[in-house]
Design a protein that fits this description.
There is one protein chain. This protein has six helices and eleven strands. The protein is of the alpha/beta class. A seven-stranded mixed sheet has the order 5-2-1-6-7-11-10, with helices on both faces. The chain has a two-stranded antiparallel sheet with strand order 3-4. Strands 8-9 form a two-stranded parallel ribbon. InterPro entries: Class_I_gatase-like, DJ-1, DJ-1/PfpI, Prot/Nucl_acid_deglycase.
């Protein structure tokens, strides 16, 4: 069973975080939700309160098949500034794990730290200047380039999450979850 890390931070986009967690768990993946803060309690951008399974420090030495980042502000900035998370992303990138980000996170996190250099990527409109070294594809809801998967924002959260699932468990698994969700 594929293991997925879903970090969460205060200010993440509610729809994106919940959709990622829900779709991947429906698909039978082993999803670990980890707060990057000192508390498991996180308050999303629109005041949804979410409790993480663990703190990021609790799983810092583990290797996952994917690390999936929701967007939202200032959540993406908290991710960008979390040295432990960036170190984990770098370690997973070397292992060719799937690194996925939606909304502001492709630019604010991946762009700032060089994960999209010489890659095609997308992000929330207005953040494209942060996709340093990437070819910006503004009209694509989801963009995959090597092990980097990016998406635009809340409205694309479902297709983004299903794409993560499809990459980890196969098209049939993703299609089965999509059918159950009436997608």
């Amino acid at each position: 069973m594929s293991k997925v890390l879903v970090p969460i931070a205060n200010g993440n986009e509610d729809i994106e975080a919940i959709t990622i967690i829900d779709v991947l768990r429906r698909g039978g993946l082993d999803v670990t939700v980890a707060s990057i803060h000192e508390s498991k309690q996180v308050v999303m951008a629109h005041n949804t309160k979410l409790e993480a399974d663990v703190l990021l420090t609790d799983v810092a030495d583990q290797i996952f098949d994917a690390v999936v980042l929701a967007g939202g502000m200032p959540g993406a900035e908290h991710f960008r500034d979390c040295k432990l998370l960036i170190d984990m992303l770098e370690k997973h990138d070397i292992q060719d794990a799937l690194l996925a980000a939606i909304c502001a996170s492709p630019a604010v996190v991946f762009g700032t730290h060089g994960f999209v250099v010489d890659k095609q990527a997308t992000c929330y409109p207005g953040f494209e200047g942060g996709l340093t070294g990437a070819e910006y594809l503004p009209n694509e809801p989801v963009v995959m380039d090597d092990n980097i998967l990016t998406s635009r924002g809340p409205a694309t959260a479902m297709i983004f999450s299903l794409t993560v699932l499809g990459n980890l468990k196969g098209y049939e698994a993703a299609q089965s979850v999509a059918d159950g969700l009436l997608c």
